[in-house]
Design goal:
alpha+beta
Length: 194
C-alpha cells in the first residue's frame, strides 16, 4: 500500500497536477495568451501560468493556475480536484501529452455568495470492486505510463460524473473509490469563466 501511494504521488506530481507528459515541445514563452497546461512541457512545466477545463455542476469552466508547483503551507480545509474518465468525446486532458481524463471541482465563484476555495486536493476517482461487480459503475480502463492500467470512473448508474455531488454520492454508496493523492497533489486554481 505504501508503494502504491508513493507511485500515485509520483504520478500526480508528473501527470495530474502539471498535466503534462513526455511529448511535444512547448511554444515560445511569448506565445499568444495563457496556454493549456497539457501543452506545456520541458523546463517550463510547473513554473508558468496555464489553464485547464473543469466540470462544475454539469458545465465546463476554465480554471487558471499561476503555476502548478504549490510551495505554500497546506491549508487544513481543501476542496477536491477530482480526476475522472472523459465525460464527453473531447477529454479535458488527452494524448499525446497525457492520458485521457476530465477534472471535476465542487464550486465556481458566485459573485462572492458561494462556497469556493482556490486550494485543492487531487483525487483519482476509480470504480470500486462493488461498482464494477454490480455494473453500477462503468470504468474507462486507462493505461498510465509507469503506473499501469486503472479503472477511472466514467458513469455511475448511467449518469455522468460532472459534479462533485455525483462523485461524492457514488463514493458514499461504495460505487467509486476516490484516491487521495497526498500532499504532493495540492494545487491552487481559480475559475475564470466558461
Amino acid at each position: 500500500m505504501i508503494r502504491f501511494r508513493r507511485m500515485v504521488t509520483v504520478l500526480v506530481t508528473t501527470m495530474a497536477l502539471t498535466v503534462v507528459a513526455l511529448g511535444s515541445a512547448a511554444p515560445a514563452v511569448g506565445a499568444a495568451g495563457l496556454r493549456n497546461c497539457v501543452d506545456i512541457t520541458g523546463p517550463q512545466s510547473g513554473r508558468v501560468g496555464c489553464y485547464e477545463l473543469v466540470w462544475v455542476n454539469g458545465s465546463q469552466h476554465r480554471m487558471t493556475f499561476s503555476n502548478t508547483s504549490f510551495q505554500g503551507a497546506t491549508p487544513k480545509e481543501l476542496d477536491a480536484f477530482y480526476v475522472v474518465a472523459p465525460q464527453t468525446d473531447t477529454p479535458q486532458g488527452a494524448p499525446p501529452n497525457t492520458f485521457p481524463h476530465d477534472h471535476v471541482v465542487r464550486d465556481a465563484p458566485a459573485q462572492n455568495h458561494g462556497s469556493y476555495s482556490v486550494h485543492l486536493q487531487g483525487y483519482f476517482v476509480f470504480c470500486s470492486a462493488l461498482g464494477i461487480g454490480t455494473g453500477s459503475c462503468v470504468p474507462a480502463m486507462t493505461t498510465i505510463q509507469g503506473f499501469g492500467t486503472v479503472p477511472f470512473a466514467k458513469t455511475v448508474n448511467g449518469q455522468p460524473l460532472t459534479s462533485a455531488a455525483a462523485i461524492e454520492s457514488a463514493a458514499a454508496a461504495g460505487l467509486v473509490a476516490p484516491i487521495n493523492l497526498g500532499p504532493g497533489a495540492v494545487i491552487v486554481g481559480s475559475i475564470s469563466g466558461n
